[in-house]
Write a structure and sequence with these properties.
Blueprint: H1 2-9, H2 17-30, H3 39-54, H4 63-87, H5 95-120, H6 126-135, H7 139-142, H8 146-151, H9 153-170, H10 176-192, H11 197-215, E1 223-226, E2 229-235, E3 241-246, E4 249-255, H12 279-290, E5 297-301, E6 317-322, H13 325-332, H14 339-343, E7 348-351, H15 354-357, E8 365-370, H16 385-394, E9 395-404, H17 413-421, E10 426-431, E11 448-453, E12 469-470, H18 487-496
Parallel strand pairs: 5-6, 5-8, 6-7, 8-9
Antiparallel strand pairs: 1-2, 2-3, 3-4, 9-11, 10-11, 10-12
Helix pairs in contact: 2-4, 3-4, 3-6, 3-10, 3-11, 6-11, 9-11, 10-11, 16-17
């Protein structure tokens, strides 16, 4: 549940707390003599909620509705499962064994979702699988006799045949509208059979498979999953760009066809947040100009599709620090993205957490660029005063640090400015949302970028009046450190912006 809402619904800070709080609350409500609401009411809500959650169209729901649906369904499922646990509890003499088994089951679930699922599935496919499994935990299913199962064999066989037929139709070239109608029919059948748990479970399984094929999760082969999340490789609706996204965030795009549809074979042009005229592009150009037209050594934290490689110039030594080996494989594959091969074939790629690998890098960097996203979240340990101290130690005396902080939920410029102030550094920001024109067809997007240096003169034209403004640190704030961070503070800053 947590993986699904963090990856496919919203990469919002602290969102993982909600499922955990609901999970613990259901123990309090279910482990009692009379559970409210009753299992019958919960079973009815469970069937309807599962049908809604498995529909492929729910991915387009507004954020609030999507979260309410999935969190509400999680609460109902947990109530049913914990209610079943309570009714099966042994006598008091065996309670220690009972709770030991309960904990062991939780450990198995954690191993499956945390270690096995990322290696087995290319998407968060365990979520719909477990939604179907939860339907099998209904109390009215457990009391069915073998005779009841035999009586239902014929109807179950008919339902299975219809589901197989629906999947075969789904895999044809029928219009998407027909596929949506098919999913709605399966949903309606689930609700109609809600009192027959075997039928409901079978229909839910069919709807889950149907939805997976509609969304391409089973057939496209365009998703790669690692410990750090799901990376989706897709083609834009006009067919001109190949995109790389992680969760709900676009991490790069590359033109693959010209406007006339012919293959694009020229030098790749950085797009999305990484355009030459965007915040990162202007910062790199300004620091390069300030240092005589050439950067000696550059370290980039975060690789993505490799877009920043096309900002490198001849004679410059660029190193990319990336934590996810799957991202490295994607960026190095010329059949997917050509940024590295066409623009910086000699660039080094160092695998591992940047706080550790950068510490092993030689100092004297002309420029350090931090563009490390996990979906829409930026790892907080890359913005602490200890991290700023590391960056400063690895920079040349006149070097600069550029940090990409575009985010839907957090305002980070003041966090960085306060941490930088502890090291005597100055901070400037360019908010592209106020000045950049978003060009959808060309995949150009606005970005928020922070530039930090020991002296504003080291930033060249960025320190001049214009697009960049100096961020005055609030020394009354407690700076983020490896022992302290305040995400709520960043959220409130974004609300006040």
């Amino acid at each position: 549940m947590t993986a699904h809402i963090s990856t496919d619904v919203a990469a919002a800070p602290l969102l993982w707390v909600a499922p955990l709080a609901l999970f613990l609350l259901t123990f309090v409500l279910a482990f009692r003599e009379r559970m409210v609401p009753s299992q019958t009411v919960l079973a009815c809500i469970q069937v309807f909620g599962t049908a809604m959650a498995l529909l492929p169209m729910t991915a387009a729901f507004p954020l609030g509705i999507g979260l309410a649906l999935h969190l509400g369904l999680f609460f109902v499922n947990a109530m049913i499962c914990h209610g079943a646990l309570y009714t099966r509890r042994p006598d008091a003499a065996r309670l220690t064994e009972f709770y030991l088994c309960l904990s062991f089951g939780g450990m198995l679930g954690g191993i499956f979702c945390g270690l096995l699922a990322p290696r087995i599935f290319s998407t968060v496919l365990e979520y719909p699988i477990l939604l179907v499994a939860a339907l099998l935990c209904r109390p009215d299913l457990s009391i069915l006799s073998a005779a009841s199962w035999r009586e239902n064999r014929r109807s179950l066989a008919i339902l299975a045949g219809l589901i197989v037929l629906a999947l075969l139709i789904n895999l044809t070239i029928l219009p998407r509208s027909w596929l949506i109608v098919g999913a709605l029919c399966l949903m309606g059948a689930m609700i109609a059979f809600w009192r027959k748990p075997q039928n409901v479970a079978l229909l839910a399984m069919g709807l889950a498979l149907f939805s997976a094929t509609v969304s391409g999760a089973l057939t496209s082969g365009a998703s790669v999953r690692s410990f750090f999340g799901v990376h989706k490789i897709a083609t834009s609706t006009d067919g001109h760009f190949r995109t790389l996204s992680h969760g709900t965030t676009l991490h790069g795009a590359m033109r693959i066809t010209n406007e006339d549809g012919t293959p694009f074979t020229g030098r790749p042009e950085p797009v999305t947040y990484f355009t030459m005229e965007g915040g990162i592009g202007r910062a790199i150009a300004a620091v390069r100009s300030r240092q005589g037209g050439r950067l000696d050594t550059v370290a980039v934290v975060g690789l993505g599709a490799g877009s920043l490689a096309c900002h490198a110039q001849a004679g410059e030594a660029w190193t990319f620090l990336e934590i996810d080996p799957e991202v490295v494989r994607i960026a190095r594959n010329p059949a997917l993205f050509r940024f590295l091969g066409a623009c910086a074939p000699d660039a080094r790629i160092v695998l591992g957490d940047a706080r550790l690998t950068l510490a092993d890098e030689p100092g004297g960097k002309s420029l350090i660029v931090v563009d490390a996203f996990s979906s829409d979240s930026i790892p907080s340990h890359l913005m602490t005063r200890e991290a700023l101290a590391l960056y400063a130690a690895k920079l040349a005396p006149d070097g600069a640090l550029v940090v990409h902080i575009s985010n839907r939920h957090l305002e980070l410029r003041h966090i960085l400015a306060r941490a930088a102030a502890d090291k005597g550094l100055v901070t400037f920001v360019r908010d592209g949302r106020l000045m950049d024109s978003i060009d959808g067809p060309r995949f150009r997007q606005a970005s928020i970028v922070v530039a930090i240096a020991r002296d504003e003169a080291h930033l060249g034209t960025l320190a001049e009046p214009g697009e960049w403004t100096r961020v005055v640190p609030d020394m009354g704030r407690r700076p983020w450190s490896d022992d302290f961070s305040n995400v709520v503070e960043a959220m409130l800053d974004e609300m006040r912006r």
